[in-house]
Amino acid sequence: MIKEVKLQEILDIRDGTHDSPKYVNNGYPLVTSKNIKDGTIDFSNVNLISKEDFDKINKRSEVQNGDIIMPMIGTIGNPVIVNTDKRFAIKNVALFKFESNELLNNDYLFYYLKSKNFYHQINLIKRGGTQSFISLSDIRNLMIPMFTVSRQREIVNILKKAESLINKRKGQILELSFLTKSIFLEMFGDPISNSKGINTKKGSELFNFSSGKFLNNNDRTSEQGYPVYGGNGINGLSQSFLIDYSTIVIGRVGAYCGSIHRSEPLSWVTDNAIYIKNNKMNQNIYFLYHLFQNLNLNRFADYSGQPKITQKPLLEIDYIYPPMSLQNQFEDKLRTIEILKEKLEISLELFENNFNSLMQRAFKGDLFND
Predict the structure, then answer these.
(1) Which of 2, 18, 4, 9 minimizes the C-alpha distance to 140?
(2) Model's pTM, two decimal places?
(3) Most CB contacts within 10 A, which of 85, 102, 247, 303?
(4) CA atoms of 237 and 239, how far apart (whole Å)
(5) From residue 338, how far is each of 168, 180, 278 by CA, in Å?
(6) Nearest to 273 by CA among 296, 303, 247
(7) Burial class (CB in 10 A: 0-12, 13-18, 19+), 200
């Protein structure tokens, strides 16, 4: 039977500040849970603090390369092995220190913090309502299967090889997305500058736009089972307006202002979105989706408060209007790409399921015969 130990028995675990330092225009980054995304630290929208607050926080929680940091509030988990030249402090983030640690491999812990074994423990101890959290004491008392460091490295090598297949497949899917954009630009050029000199029409000539509406609680999608488009794609809000055809939906307000979605038939549209109510010229929906994707509608947003887009500029701007035969050729090319993309996504799901199964076996000690 595999020996399990508490993390605090083999590792120095700390956390960042719980205070709210005053933010400054020029200073040091303060990394919080919201800055940790997809296994990386996103410094693009990080808040800055003074050197005095930076030194105060780092007196007990200085982060060094090779350490692991992990959100303790909100989306718990999503660990990152730190590897950056930037100096930063942390808030509401767990810090696993690896300086001079001879008992635990940081890659081994990294994979364990992504495993179902770990999340099972977290789900038993996390607290909070809309925003979950765990304490430093909770983390220190988490159990981890313990192997020799050499065996930990063997496990890591196996998991890295399996994960590389997943990353390669994700890269192939991403390349197909780039290919789709490339084909659009090759066939139609930049739709904003109309670089290919295609005939144009005003939005008012081509479309009727409308905003979604609120319905009562009897029409909540959790009961009806229809997808929701509220500006942030499927599953936006529960109260909405039902449409029975596929159309283009545009995020109207907030963080998803200007986002573009191609709805499914029988979808709810909330009042956080604008949709094409009438496609007057019956243009190809494949073409329209990628046309709107390339129009950068955020340039029409009002940023005086919460970002928002109205129907007025959508009706007033000029849209390229290529022949329907060319629009249909574009669809044919995209359908071929979509078939390939679907196959890759199916294989990606298989790789991910196998990887999760491999992690479970690894932390149970079932990968090796000895």
Answers:
(1) 9
(2) 0.75
(3) 247
(4) 6
(5) 18, 9, 26
(6) 247
(7) middle
Nearest Cα neighbor of 205 from 273, 274, 278 is 278
d(CA 332, CA 123): 46
Q: Helix, strand, or coil here: 228?
A: strand
**Separation between Cα atoms, residue 308 and residue 254, nearest integer Å:** 6
Residue 138 · residue 124 · CB < 8 Å: no
Model confidence pLDDT, tens digit, residues 94-119: 999 998 888 999 999 999 999 998 99
| Residue 239: φ, ψ to 5° | -100, 130
pLDDT of residue 228: 64
The domain segmentation of the chain, as residue ranges, is 4-146, 148-188+323-370, 199-321
Distance, CA of 298 to CA of 58 (rounded, Å): 39
Query: Fold match between 4-146 and 199-321?
Result: yes
The per-residue pLDDT for range 159-201, each reduced to its tens digit, is: 999 999 999 999 999 999 999 999 999 999 999 999 999 999 9
d(CA 291, CA 113): 41
Contacts of 325 (CB under 8 A, 6+ apart): none
Question: Domain 148-188+323-370, CATH 1.25.40 — does that match?
Answer: no
Q: How many angstroms separate the first and last alpha carbons of the chain?
A: 12
CATH fold, domain 199-321, is Adenine-n6-DNA-methyltransferase TaqI; Chain A, domain 2 (3.90.220)
Whether the CB-CB separation of 100 and 19 falls below 8 Å is answered with no
Query: 89: helix, coil or strand?
Result: strand
